[in-house]
């Protein structure tokens, strides 16, 4: 960690102390007290008005102290500009500075003290919590300074309190969202250690559900602080309930589709599936849709109601993977050679470690157009594409070597053309052969 100078640590704290002393001085500052009975009636009226403003402007005990001392403040501090006394402007400015300074100090303490200290512990959770709380705590201190500054000014009390409550509510909801991200990150780390992929599927849904719940509660909380009757608002929603239900028909269908997918579990995250024309790896199963990463690397979003009603082919659930291919040898191969080559190819497949020995079929299957076809049918133990292809390649190379060692050839498409009559005689004459029936292979 980088070296921190003494001034970088103590400077912000000293600045805070200086601001506090400045606030106290502004509140407690007195000028020479007027001699008893020596004040003019006009000055007495100004003093009484200043006392009343101090009592109503400053919150709590600070207002009481200011009210006690207001009668002794100098005349210049009691002068008004735009209906606001000079001392009120000064105090509001000082509290704004105090809020900004407290936010800077909070950020400094979290970034250089609390978070580094949490990183030294063997647990990651405390570091995540400290990181999530660092910004909201600083903004709450700043909001406190701004609210106190505005409260000092002679502004309508109800709007100021309403705005302050809304800002505080939003900050708290923001902190709860960050806390949910921390919890979900921690759960994801735990889920990665388990063999089951069900928890990988549940964690994103839990994250969305918690955020939706917190957002709904925060919205109701803010509406209530705005002065609206939440019960009446909820009751009023029943009037348009039918219209809302019709508008949300597809959304509800997708939501229940997600519930059925979660209960039935035809596939999980990271499974290779095929739904209709969409084939790829499942990346996320949400409340509304399922996201599939296709082989061309595109991301396809399929509504859950479509997935729930479609036929799902889950390739990842294969216990083993099939290979079915045909090996063709030339028609020059005799029956005895065919018997030997079929037996040799069966031994090649059976001796490979990557082949499942439970079901293997190596047979002379049919007479093709250009070759004598041997059916090669077996299953690989590995279902992953790369491992499956590695086993298949190894077996194919062994088949090629076996056919070559036996003096046979793998056939390729050929065609034999027969000529008779005059055409055959003329062609035979040009080639220097005998007349009659001739054949030419091409």
Can you walk through the features of this model?
- The chain is α+β, with helices and mostly antiparallel strands.
- The chain has four domains: 6-155, no CATH class; 171-237; 249-317, SH3 type barrels; 321-405, Alpha-Beta Plaits.
- 59% of the residues lie in helices and 16% in strands.
- The protein has helices at residues 6-28, 41-57, 60-69, 86-119, 125-152, 157-192, 198-225, 230-237, 241-247, 249-264, 304-309, 335-350, 385-405, 421-431; strands at 80-81, 84-85, 272-275, 278-285, 289-294, 299-303, 312-314, 321-329, 355-367, 372-380, 416-419, 438-441.
- The strands form four sheets. It has a five-stranded antiparallel sheet with strand order 6-5-4-3-7. It has a three-stranded antiparallel sheet with strand order 8-10-9.
- A hairpin with a 4-residue loop joins β5 and β6.
- The longest helix has 36 residues, at 157-192.
- It is elongated, with a radius of gyration of 43 Å.
- The two termini are 80 Å apart.
- Residues 1-10, 28-47 and 435-442 have low confidence and may be disordered.
Set out the fold topology:
Blueprint lengths: L5 H23 L12 H17 L2 H10 L10 E2 L2 E2 H34 L5 H28 L4 H36 L5 H28 L4 H8 L3 H7 L1 H16 L7 E4 L2 E8 L3 E6 L4 E5 H6 L2 E3 L6 E9 L5 H16 L4 E13 L4 E9 L4 H21 L10 E4 L1 H11 L6 E4 L1
Antiparallel strand pairs: 1-2, 3-4, 3-7, 4-5, 5-6, 8-10, 9-10, 11-12
Helix pairs in contact: 1-4, 2-3, 4-5, 5-6, 6-7, 12-13
Q: How much of the residues is beta strand, in percent?
A: 15-25%
Distance between the termini: 80 Å
Note the total helix count.
14
Structural class: alpha+beta
Count of β-strands: 12
Largest sheet, strands/sense/barrel: 5 strands, antiparallel
SSE arrangement, N to C = HHHEEHHHHHHHEEEEHEEHEEHEHE
Give the C-alpha Rg.
43 Å
Q: Give the averaged pLDDT, no decimals.
A: 74
Total of domains: 4
